[in-house]
Predict the structure.
Amino acid sequence: MTEQDTQINQDKLNHNVASIKLFLLFLLFFLLLLLIGGGLTVWVDPYFHYHKPIEGLNYNLHDERYQNYGILKSFDYNAIITGTSMTENFKPSELDALFGVKAVKVPFSGGSHLEIHELLDYGYKYNDDIRMVVRSVDLLRAFDTKDHRDYDLATYPTYLYDENPFNDVKYVFNKDIFFQETIGVLRRTRGNSPVTTLDDYANWESYYSFGPASIQEYYSRNKVEPTGNNAILEEEYQTIFENITENVVQVAEEHPETEFYLYIAPYSIYYFDYEDQMGQLDRYMLAERYILSLLVGHPNIHVFDFFGQYDVICDADNYRDPAHHSERVNSMILQWMAEGVGELDTDTYEDFCNEIWEYYHSYDYDSLYEADGYTIK
Amino acid sequence: MLFNSYIFILLFIPLCLLGYFTLNKIGMLWANLFLLGMSLWFYGYFNPSYLLIILSSIAVNYLAGVLIGQWKDTGRKKTVLILAICINLGLLFYYKYMDFFLSGVNALFRTDIGYLNIVLPLGISFFTFQQISYVVDVYRGETTACALIPYACYVSFFPQLVAGPIVSHQEFLPDFLDPEKRKPDYDNLLTGVRIFSMGLAKKVLIADVFGKAADLGYDNAAWSNSFTILFTVLAYAIQLYFDFSGYSDMAIGLGRMFNIEIPVNFRSPYQAVSITDFWDRWHITLTRFFTRYVYIPLGGSRKGKARTYVNILIVFLLSGLWHGASLTFVFWGLCHGILLVLNRMFQKVWDKVPGLAARAVTFVTISLLWIFFRSPDFNTAFLMFSKIFRGGGGWLPGYITECFAIPEIAFLFYGRSMDVLVGQVLTAGFTILALGILFFAKNNEEYTIKRKNTAANAFAAAFLLIWCIFSFEKVSAFLYFNF
């Protein structure tokens, strides 16, 4: 081998070593950035997937489908408030005071019975000391199938709902979460932003106005086209049966140690007007009766129906639309539950149903539009 | 599997490179089998049943290559060749064009034959053409039939499998079979990573953002003003280039990591000064395929002007059909064919147009023709054209500008509301940046390969890669305050 060959080989070797070093440098940069970016989200954990909130950090509780599972997994609690948007204005602190529990609120706006059932199942996986569950049962969900969801499952962050560590990459390496949530928590902490409590979480009270004008923004009689469908078919009874037994009753039966406080969410009188205009008032009230029949008679289920609270229901100032009531009503509901008001059992529910049937079938709905200068629309 | 996915970047690629180069120390066959297995995993990730299609296709074409290579009798060779081409095109026809064909039959004969609604197997257009070229080249004696496993590796090589470039066997196999290239070359590895990360950024950080705006623009075309429609057309032109060329860049980068040179597929096509020039720069390997296996066999430009023009039109009709099974694609191809013919006819006149003006006219023409490419039907395309010429300006609607309010920007605007003006400025900024890259920047390969690997480049590639990985998943917005 000539001296020149040796020199060429040496140059090649040097080049190779330099290339290896550069490639290793790339790997180092890559892993370092991955670790810093991902590690920060794991440490802050804005969705509580790994741990409970870190003391001193100011978390923003605001995204139900991203945070509810983490709340049930990581928070300290022994009572749960859950349900649809009808439960968003509850204040867990009030439940704590009334029942001597430590509650969390995990509502799903637009939540179906299935979604809430899955959420509760998840909670039981991580907490074996759940003493109480307050849950709404919405009449507007009456005819959903047991598999119903309002949204396409593909849009759900299901990677937060399981124990598969591999799909957590979608959480940990996600710039939407990194910038908006992880960095957001740090910025909130530094900026001394107001702390979101579980009472504030998902509460929409301050975003809306209440009263007849507000209700009529969402509901106009002249836009209603009657369905002419006022009966319940046999297969629809079967649908209700499956949905209620599998998604509502079953979880209570599986957990006799927990007291379930289930209530039919009290919509306003405008809701009944709507059903009346649609020509399906019988249909929904029959569904309600059937649902109640499926709920009563279980030792750990307390069934409440507040459609008998006529003063509240007929007062438009309690509502922002035909269904959604103000937080004042949520507070009343908890109080009623504590006092046993509106509670039904196998002996009383039929009489109650007969009573409200009579009331809502004989109500002068036109009068709703004559008061306060509001005309019939 | 997609290039722009967590599993591909964080698991598949490291595993694949590590396994391939390690097994090469034991024996090339093991490495080949491993690579084949990985490519099939990549291909069958979403739908394993399609593995059967690609494997059958590989088997048939391999067999055809062997038979043609062995036999001396030209007649028998030709029979096998024709049979192989028919099988390839038949497969493509069945999976890609059957419903299009049935819709034509229904329209022509007023019948009501039900559609098959077949989901198009990934990459079928690419691997079919690739294999046709192989069988034809064996028949022509331009190459010899190779062994089964390397052949299967060539067809299924994952970097180019689902979105091209259409790599020829002459380009792939010599590199692939070279024992010297079976060792990791760290220079190539890092250059490959750099090209890949640039391609990924083109796709994820640019194309997807403009793509969202273009989709919304098309969805809301019926009630949009001219300005919004023009922006939509522009957004789609930007999306298409960055998306498609981004994929090609990623393929080239991946190939380089394996020491395999994959040909350049896009050479700054929007910098073209004529339609002819555009097709020399856009999807180069497809144009090459059509030139070699359709245009030249038809006579190319050797049989007089008229025949040349007819040949060009045939090639572009086929090209349109290759891009999609719909009359809008065929029409798009036809328009390009006609413009190419006109370009040839008036070449001398066109050459006198100043460069910048020629470039601008070419870009506008191509962008307008993309309307037929993007529209699901002629009604939508005509709606878009009519809206362009109907006039009407005003701000871009919020649903368009919001596409550009990416989290990085929201991060910078923390605590401040992004009003209408900010949205417009942001959109304009993004668009000017993208157009600047399109019109004035060098091609990715040119830019990346010619710059040596340095610590700064390595950091830039790592940063870009991380930025893209963090952009794969979005947070969904659920319509709250509703039942």
Summary: Chain A has 13 helices and six strands. The beta strands of chain A are 79-83, 103-107, 132-137, 259-264, 301-305, 343-344.
